[in-house]
Amino acid sequence: MAKKKAPGDETEPGTRQSAENICRRCSGTGKVDGRPCRDCGGSGRVTVIVGDA
Known about the structure:
mainly beta, two-stranded antiparallel ribbon, 0% helix, two-stranded antiparallel sheet
């Protein structure tokens, strides 16, 4: 089953020219102020576009 797009993702996971990166909002911890990060859904990672798509 494919991972769903989180609010902080630039594109759908698994698409061409995409890669996983550390979430900027929570710095990869998955938490902001003791709560799950809204941008990454608590995973600490977001999907970003790389290259010249």
